[in-house]
Specification:
Length: 526
């Protein structure tokens, strides 16, 4: 196996540009802001950056409604700023992948403006128009069809009505979309994160989805006709051929309504390199955070991925979900956040870290009148939307956390005077320094990156697994409880005395047992 492959061995850090760092005081993070912080990212020890959309957008879905796929929104900078960012990132050994939103565009995209202008416009068929809707539902609420009085037909949109779905079956559209990918590859980007890629194709006959039990109308359907159509595979084959024409390019798909089975079906040497399987973060966030659950879930995924030869990914947080630290920690206590970080960085697979996760940022809680996110507006208070995890990055304790000198587009979390990067950098016990040490350890030890994984039987509060290559075996042991736990190592697993990392205090040994202090995270050589 090749010794280092950036997207397999490295850690990918997601940047949500508008909340990262603002250089011109307009309250929105921007591309020069990312460039300005590259040294910080390199110092943390991540390997690649995934940039959420920075393309021109009317912000009906905060950038996921793209009005031009090959340009930079002036609020975020210019193409020259992008080129500089890419060059500066590469100079520091950081790769960049772009978020490609190719299932839909903004309703302000010139293609859609033409498509909706008249029924005989040459671009009419670039979107999906029908005389009658079927039963398909939009993920953000309501029907997936909106009537357009201009031409008297309905258009399809999987998300908001301001995000019409593209007709990938039209050969001209297909070619135009491929040109977009090519445009960025030619500019030197290292790969793509594909937004809801498995929704590109819909059933050619527009059959109704069959019913199932669920809460919202969207959940009361089996999504067999609006996503996951067989035409997806030849498209991925083409995309992969395009990527492979350049060295070490990568594509990771955001699998919409993912199951591990689906995910492996979309990956392989002639398809995607990887696709997210949201093992800890399904839509409802109902998954328990316990050693038993994590073990069960990862063992099931390992069996499938190993057989298929597909490389897994691990995700605990992103711009669509309540942050892991908010889900798993009590108040400002970071002990469980360290455990979560250890899970993220030591399971087998590529970790995706979301900006602020390294300092344990918590979700911002907003009043109804402050909600900006469309599904949050629609479903409040049952669902409050995704603004909570999008609050600006907390750099230091100066006004607005050093994020902006102006008025931030979304307010700062009130905990920023104490929870910020500068403070955590100075504190050897902080989550930030723990994360940094763990990232360095991961880089030093191939077993943590590519080694096999085997879970060990342990007391209920303990999650323990071995990561193993021919050269070394490491034991990762995590105590999820507030109590000291004695963990008797199974036969054949003998500690060699080297504790490579410990979050709380060096664990002690008692014969063949390891005594783990409360919330201990330890990595040791066995
Ligand atoms: C998935 C993205 O992650 C999310 O933020 C967006 O709203 C939808 N796709 C629609 O593009
Ligand atoms: Ca700005």
């Amino acid at each position: 196996m090749q010794d280092w492959l950036w997207w397999r061995d490295g850690v990918i850090y997601q940047i949500y540009p508008r909340s990262f760092y603002d250089t011109n005081g307009d309250g929105l993070g921007d591309l020069p802001g990312i460039t300005a912080k590259l040294d910080d990212l390199a110092a943390l020890g991540v390997d690649a950056l995934w940039l959420s959309p920075f393309y021109p957008t009317p912000d009906a879905d905060f950038g996921y409604d793209v009005a031009d796929h090959t340009a930079v929104d002036p609020r975020f900078g210019t193409l020259a700023d992008f080129d500089r960012l890419l060059a500066e990132a590469h100079a520091r050994g950081l790769r960049i992948i772009l978020d490609m939103v190719m299932n839909h565009t903004s309703d302000q995209h010139p293609w859609f403006l033409q498509s909706r202008a008249s029924r005989d416009n040459p671009r009419r068929d670039w979107y999906i128009w029908r005389d009658q809707p079927n039963n398909w539902q939009a993920a953000f609420g309501g029907r997936a069809w909106t009537f357009d009085p201009v031409t008297g037909q309905y258009y399809l949109h999987a998300f908001t009505p301001w995000q019409p779905d593209i007709n990938w079956r039209n050969p001209q559209v297909y070619a135009a979309q491929m040109d977009v990918f090519r445009f960025w590859l030619e500019r030197g980007v290292d790969g793509f994160r594909l937004d809801v890629f498995n929704a590109y194709y819909k059933d050619a006959q527009f059959r109704n989805n069959p019913p199932k039990f669920g809460l919202r109308a969207f959940d009361r359907q089996r999504h067999i006709y609006d996503i996951d159509q067989p035409e997806m595979i030849p498209m991925l084959n083409d995309l992969r051929r395009l990527l492979d024409a350049y060295p070490e390019r990568y594509a990771v798909g955001e699998t919409y309504l993912a199951t591990p089975q689906k995910v492996i079906g979309y990956c392989g040497p002639d398809k995607l390199h990887a696709a997210f399987s949201f093992d800890f973060t399904d839509q409802a966030l109902t998954y328990p955070w316990s050693p038993a659950y994590i073990r069960r879930r990862i063992e099931a995924r390992e069996a499938l991925f190993n057989t298929a030869g597909v490389w897994p990914t691990t995700v605990l947080s992103n711009h669509d979900l309540p942050r892991a630290a908010s889900r798993y920690c009590r108040g400002e206590d970071d002990r469980m956040a360290k455990i979560a970080m250890a899970v993220l960085l030591t399971l087998r697979g590529t970790p995706f870290m979301y900006q602020g996760e390294e300092i344990g940022m918590r979700d911002l809680s907003l009043k109804r009148s402050e909600i900006l996110d469309p599904p949050g507006k629609k479903y409040w208070p049952i669902y409050k939307g995704r603004d909570g995890c999008r609050s600006p990055m907390q750099w230091d304790s100066s006004p607005q956390a050093g994020f902006t000198t102006g008025q931030p587009w979304l307010r700062l979390h009130p905990n920023y005077p104490s929870r910020n990067l500068a403070a955590q950098r100075a504190d050897p016990q902080s989550l930030y320094n723990f994360t940094r040490n763990l990232l360095a350890l991961r880089r030093q030890h191939p077993a943590l990156r590519r080694g096999s994984i085997r879970f060990l039987d342990a007391p209920p509060a303990v999650l323990a697994y071995l990561r193993q290559t021919d050269e070394e075996t490491l034991l990762v042991a995590l105590n999820f409880s507030a109590r000291r736990v004695r963990f008797t190592l199974p036969e054949g697993v003998t500690p060699r005395g080297y504790v490579l990392l410990s979050a709380v205090e060096q664990p002690t040994f008692a014969g063949t047992s390891l005594i783990l202090p409360p919330y201990e995270v330890c990595v040791l050589v066995v």
